[in-house]
From TrEMBL:
GO molecular function annotation: flavin adenine dinucleotide binding
Protein name, entry field: Magnesium and cobalt efflux protein CorC
Source species: uncultured Thiotrichaceae bacterium
An example Gene Ontology CC term for this record: plasma membrane
Domain of life, source organism: Bacteria
């Protein structure tokens, strides 16, 4: 049967699409050209800067893999299967997360995931605690998985955290639903992030390591750590690290420079957010261990 194509069959063009057509040259031939168009729209104040950032984040989203945003294995806060109730409570109090991987004897022997809220029913009834009653199955994803696929898995499994598995089926890292969203909307600060900022750009921990906000001016960094970095081409610690590496590093990447070890604790595809800095013998020992 011949299809009857009439004007009434054609749906009106959405207003947002007509708005884009009216304001953009949509002749871009590839993703990079379109990103350039978005940046020009920002420069001309056609779009708000935050909107441009999100649109650029969406375009980069399908290219990124889990390994690009995951928390590396050495930085995972976890619980052992044999930990007693008090030990687990102390661990949660110290680290203040809502979810924890549960391992047996090592971090390749994953048991599952513990939600901190599941411990509330044992308050006043500690003798009844059995970790096997509250451990939930873990969502496992490969390092190479694209973020758009990971987002679908989070939705389908109603999960907020996944353990990242390497090619040998070992635990390589951890990724959360928030990590994925931050690639689109930018850094999401929670109440703990606010506390970190209130404590200053540079915090010295008892074990001798420094946790440094990436936006820390180099002159402030020099004053605290006694360094003397040249500020001809960069003004912040993030700028120094990016300049030396020649790229925006991923979480977990390291730079050994001027007897300091810089380790990226938090970053996204556009910027570095938080760094760990080791000095002196600790930096040299860490570098030697990696080599």
């Amino acid at each position: 049967m011949k299809r009857n194509n009439t004007l009434t069959d054609v749906s009106p063009r959405p207003k947002w699409k007509q708005w884009l057509i009216d304001r953009f040259d949509l002749s871009s031939q590839n993703r990079n050209e379109l990103l350039d168009e978005l940046q020009r729209a920002n420069d001309k104040n056609i779009l708000h800067g935050e909107a441009v950032d999100m649109m650029q984040g969406v375009m980069e989203f399908g290219v990124l893999q889990v390994r690009d945003i995951m928390l590396p294995r050495p930085q995972i806060d976890f619980i052992y299967h044999d930990d007693d109730f008090q030990t687990i409570l102390e661990r949660i109090s110290e680290t203040e997360h809502s979810r924890y991987p549960v391992f047996d004897e090592d971090r390749d022997d994953l048991i599952g995931v513990l939600l901190a809220k599941d411990l509330l029913k044992y308050i006043g009834r500690r003798g009844e605690f059995n970790i096997d009653d509250v451990v939930r199955p873990a969502l496992l994803v490969p390092e190479s998985q694209r973020l758009n696929r990971l987002l679908s898995e989070f939705r389908n499994n109603r999960s907020h955290m996944a353990l990242v598995i390497d090619e040998y089926a070992g635990v390589a890292g951890l990724v959360t639903f928030e990590d994925v969203l931050e690639q689109i909307v930018g850094d999401i600060d929670d109440e703990h992030d606010a506390e970190e900022e209130e404590e200053g750009n540079i915090r010295l921990h008892d074990d001798g390591r420094y946790v440094v906000q990436a936006i820390t001016p180099l002159n402030e960094f020099d004053e605290v750590l006694g360094t003397q970095f040249v500020r001809d081409e960069c003004d912040t610690v993030a700028g120094l690290v990016i300049q030396q590496l020649g790229k925006i590093p991923r979480q977990g990447e390291e730079l050994f420079f001027e007897d300091l070890l810089f380790r990226v604790l938090r970053s996204d595809n556009r910027r570095i957010l938080l760094l760990e800095v080791l000095t002196g013998e600790a930096a040299v020992a860490e570098q030697a261990a990696v080599a």
